[in-house]
Amino acid sequence: MPQPTPRKPTLYTVTADSLVAIDLNPRTRIRPRTKPRPDAGNRPPGPYRSLFTVSGTRAFTAGNLLARLPMGMFGVSAVVMIAGTRGSYALAGAVTATGLAATALVAPWTARLVDRYGQARVAVPATLLAALGSLALLLCVRADAPAWTLFACCAATATTPNLGGMSRARWAHLLRGDPKALHTANSFEQAVDELCFMLGPVLAAFLCGTFFPEAGTLAGVVLLVTGMLLFVAQRSTEPPADERAGRTTASLLRAPGIPPLLAVCLAMGMVFGAMEVVTIAFADAKGHRSAAGAMLGLQAAGSCAAGLLYGAVKQTGPARERYLWCIAAMTALLTLPLLAASLTGSLWLLAGALLVAGMATAPTMVTGMTLVQERTPEGRVNEGMTLAVTGLLGGIAAGSALGGRLAEHASATAGYGVPVAAAAVALMIALASSGRWNRSPRPAR
């Protein structure tokens, strides 16, 4: 049996660029061997993956997301439930406005108790009380109780803790000393806010329309309580309580830089409230009122995407300077819906303009919350962010009323002047107050 021809040895030479194997057998060709590719598993994780390498962060984020989703459900559910049984949108709007006003009054006190006694000790009973208020509202509507009972029940829901503020307080505690990671965390939380307020109304409308009018409220209560219990169960990530926070008589309204920030939040709230009402009025005037939800959803989607992108980009310069640029960009982009509505009257162009305008919302809110955290005394972070949210709620209520009145008595197109003007006011306040936002040691309690 013939023996196989022995293969000639291979000579390896190293060059500057690659490793080349030269086979001395003349019947074969020279073939390059490229450098081995680095293992993809050795690459450093991205900014958002790095956030969740800390133990407990995924669990508290999941619980907070479940509990925060109903915040976008309760308003729509209450309107559908009350208007469907009582036949009055005016009554439904008045009841939900009462709950909003009560929340603006009660939320800062609830936040102060959370800072003083801890999230688990305060948030659970406060959430249960709010859940009972929602269930009582449901029963009163079903039982055809007097109208005043609806107002009382809705006011009882004001004890709902500021879920976004508590989550941001945990990130601030876990990432203290790392401003880059904290910026990413704040961007993530803002994207979660936009996601909840984008999906919440859609989910509520689906449940109320598919099953029964009270289904949205009932599902919201279950999600709120379940999510809150999961959130507070993660004790390892909870910021420590500071009993001095609740005993101090000094108001955060006196902290340097806080009043103008709250004024900006009030103006920003007017932007959001007016934009929502005017967009609904504009779509209704064009005979496509049902399209308003999708158009507002595009605005929220743009803000959500921009928030995630903003958190992944490395930031340069102090937050106060970025805040000015963000508000200026938002003011400029908000003119696009006004131009689209006035010049063309096209719902498609208006939807695209709202998508672009929404992209400036999240970066502005993220930077504003960063400034609030910087200017809030240590140990009262949750209270400071709750005050900012309260300012937003007050602005939303005022913007809704003003935008709706202008859209009704003038035109829906003219109503878009309200968010543009409110954004311009926010920019002027920020320009006049930027000197007070220089980073300095937090004021003493």
TrEMBL record:
<feature type="transmembrane region" description="Helical">
    <location>
        <begin position="414"/>
        <end position="432"/>
    </location>
</feature>
<feature type="transmembrane region" description="Helical">
    <location>
        <begin position="347"/>
        <end position="372"/>
    </location>
</feature>
<keyword id="KW-1133">Transmembrane helix</keyword>
<feature type="transmembrane region" description="Helical">
    <location>
        <begin position="323"/>
        <end position="341"/>
    </location>
</feature>
<protein>
    <submittedName>
        <fullName>MFS transporter</fullName>
    </submittedName>
</protein>
<feature type="transmembrane region" description="Helical">
    <location>
        <begin position="258"/>
        <end position="283"/>
    </location>
</feature>
<feature type="transmembrane region" description="Helical">
    <location>
        <begin position="384"/>
        <end position="402"/>
    </location>
</feature>
<keyword id="KW-0812">Transmembrane</keyword>
<feature type="transmembrane region" description="Helical">
    <location>
        <begin position="218"/>
        <end position="237"/>
    </location>
</feature>
<dbReference type="InterPro" id="IPR011701">
    <property type="entry name" value="MFS"/>
</dbReference>
<feature type="transmembrane region" description="Helical">
    <location>
        <begin position="122"/>
        <end position="139"/>
    </location>
</feature>
<keyword id="KW-0472">Membrane</keyword>
<feature type="transmembrane region" description="Helical">
    <location>
        <begin position="89"/>
        <end position="110"/>
    </location>
</feature>
<feature type="region of interest" description="Disordered">
    <location>
        <begin position="25"/>
        <end position="48"/>
    </location>
</feature>
<feature type="transmembrane region" description="Helical">
    <location>
        <begin position="289"/>
        <end position="311"/>
    </location>
</feature>
<dbReference type="InterPro" id="IPR036259">
    <property type="entry name" value="MFS_trans_sf"/>
</dbReference>
<dbReference type="Pfam" id="PF07690">
    <property type="entry name" value="MFS_1"/>
</dbReference>
<feature type="transmembrane region" description="Helical">
    <location>
        <begin position="65"/>
        <end position="83"/>
    </location>
</feature>
